[in-house]
Amino acid sequence: MTATVPPHTPALPGPLAALAPFLTHYGYLAVGLLVLLDNAAIPVPGQTVLILAAVYAGAGQLNLAAVIAVAVVAAVLGDCLGYLLGCYGGRALVHRYGRYVGLSGARLQKAEDFFERNGGKVILVARFIDGLRQTNGIIAGTTGMPFRRFMLWNTLGALLWVGTWSTAGYLAGSDIDQVYRTALRYQLYLLLAVAALLIALGTRHLLRRRARGRRR
Question: What angle do CA 129, 135, 140 make, to 5 degrees?
């Protein structure tokens, strides 16, 4: 049977249109599966299907509360899978191969200290950044973040991410194409800001090392 786009759904931009048959055919299962995998280190269009499901809800084809519930549970479980992978596999890999990429001894300890201080904020913001959304659970598990603390920020991050995108999709209506493109642009700005911050922190660290070396 060939799936068709619901008749009252507005015109969709490319990525959303490509997912429309899959969502039409599988409904909430498609939302749960793609969101779970997207938050468990597998690069699938989980965020895109979430937005599309919210558009469908605005067109009366899905229930918005059900979309949100399914997506939140899937996002939390996906991050938990990443956390378990980090706990039982990531740390062992870092200890075994970290020295080849300069991540061993003092540097590994510094990375763990940073995540201990700022890990909650990272997890909260990570879902809005491609790459970090897929890997933040693994990083949390690898650096030994306590599971209860991880679950708190994991759940808050899932609620914020799902709430933001489902509301945007639901309210966008016929303007979904413009809203989607604007959202992608701001996501790029956020990614560039994070990259700039990391570069600034790395530069400051190198300058401090050189200054200490000169004093010695």
Answer: 115
Average pLDDT, stretch 140-161?
91
CA 140, chain centre distance (Å): 13
Q: What is the pTM of this model?
A: 0.70
pLDDT for position 174: 52
Angle, alpha carbons 40-18-132 (nearest 5°): 25
Query: For the packed helices 132-142 and 106-126, what is the interaxial angle rounded to 10 degrees?
Result: 140
Q: How far apart are the first and last CA of the chain?
A: 75
Per DSSP, the residues of 164-188 read HHHHHHHHHGGGHHHHHHHHHHHHH
- Average pLDDT (21-46) is 90
Q: What single-letter amino acid sits at 113?
A: D
Question: How many Cα atoms occupy the beta-carbon half-sphere of 146 within 13 Å?
Answer: 5
Residue 113: is it exposed, middle or buried by C-beta count within 10 angstroms (0-12/13-18/19+)? exposed
What one-letter code names the amino acid at 96?
A: R
